[in-house]
Amino acid sequence: KEYFRAAYAKLGPMSRGEKLGLWLFILATGLAFVRPLYVQYLPLMKPAYVFFTFGMLTFMLRNETGQLLLTWREAEKGIMWGMIFLFSGGLALGQLITKTGAATQIARVITLLPLSGGWETMFSLTLFATFLTEISSNTAAASISIPVVQSISQQLGLNPIPYILTSIVAVNCAFILPVSTRAVGVTYGLNPDDLLKNGLKLSIICMLLVSALGCICMHCWSLFNHL
After folding, report:
1. 178, 87 Cβ separation under 8 angstroms
2. Which residue has the higher pLDDT, 45 or 195?
3. Can you give 105-158 as a three-state secondary structure string?
4. What are phi and psi of 92, to 5 degrees?
5. How are the residues of the chain apportioned to helix, strand and coil, as percentages rounded to the nearest 5?
6. Residue 62, SS3?
7. 69/16 Cα distance (integer angstroms)
8. Where in the chain are the domains?
């Protein structure tokens, strides 16, 4: 406790620039959370645009010495350009797969496989959900994969609930591209090559574990088969 108190005391009072930065962050975060209050007046002002707008203000406001809070040269040094390109490329790939109907065609291929409702069925559906979440956001992957999983399992004459629940877990297991909720925080500071190499290993391990856990729960836990 004494160490942290001493370290805090060395910081001294907050400067004008630090206060401005703090208030910009607080206001941006607050506006993102209270969006329902102004969405009817500014329907296009999504949280991402709120943070973008307040971020741009740092290039205009000045601190106590008259210098800008942030210059482009400083921002350029701190941006991981490789990760930015990887992120945007992953989003583009996700849009390509989902909006061209490729995801539906993949689902049709799954229905042609000799599935009997056991491990191979659980793994195939988990693989489908994981593939979608790797190239799109978790929400987008869930909105596409869950109805498809339900349709496939019903076509096979199976109870769709355990497969849906397992797929819900699968759409949260994305580590290859920094486009999903879980991967964004993990990838900060990582080299894109390391992300792809190690992310692929993690995704394969997660697919196997999630499929195995889904099968075990389906056969050994009766509540897993009912909502």
Report:
1. yes
2. 45
3. HHHHHHHHCCCCCCHHHHHHHHHHHHHHHHHCCHHHHHHHHHHHHHHHHHHCCC
4. -65, -40
5. 75, 0, 25
6. strand
7. 10
8. 2-78, 81-225
Give CB contacts under 8 A, 24+ apart, made by 5-9. none
Which two three-digit tokens encode residue 190? 């990582």
Dihedral Cα 63, 67, 69, 75, nearest 10 deg: -160
Encoded tokens for 71: 């210059």
pTM of the shown model: 0.59
3-class SS at 68? strand
Burial class of 40 by CB neighbour count within 10 A (0 to 12, 13 to 18, 19+): exposed
Q: Which residue has the tokens 């290039």?
A: 59
E strand or H helix at 43, and its extent? none
Closest CA to 163 of 203, 104, 106, 117: 117
Q: What pLDDT digit, counting tens, does each position of 146-188 carry?
A: 888 888 888 788 888 999 999 989 988 877 776 665 555 555 5
